[in-house]
Amino acid sequence: MAQLRPADAPPVEEIAQVLALHPIFGRFDPTSLRAVAAHCGFATFPAGDTIMRQGDRGTFACVILEGEVDVSVEIPAGLIHVATLGRNRFIGELGVFTDLPRIATVVARTYVIVLRIDRDSLMSLAAEFPSIGVAPAAQHKPLAGLSDLRGERAGARRI
Prior knowledge:
The chain is of the alpha+beta class. The protein is built from 6 helices and 9 strands. The longest helix is centred in the N-terminal third of the chain and has 9 residues. The chain is globular.
């Protein structure tokens, strides 16, 4: 992974517009959203690189600016491909707002450029911008879907 802040990086207003597409970031007031956008970095990953690994601590989230990633989960029966995601899709956002481990592994399917949002930056901004600190991470419920895959919900059949 290469981290960079390219000279031709989009302006903060444009980054804020991309962040606003997400239900959690979209709840931030405009000033808070611009502050987060100003603290974002950029990273690149060649095809085949692991961006996030299931079970690791979630210290950052990304917005895919270019390229595609594969999202997979490891369950007792083996590895399951959950999704292929592309431009303007968010990955790892649960880890930015909680201390929960990653619930999936994300691998670059193609060369990928991402907007990177670090947990430490976000949390330090929360003191100055209260709407950041009250973002409702609980409204994002990927864990329920993971429970379904694992057959942990009541009435689920094991194969």
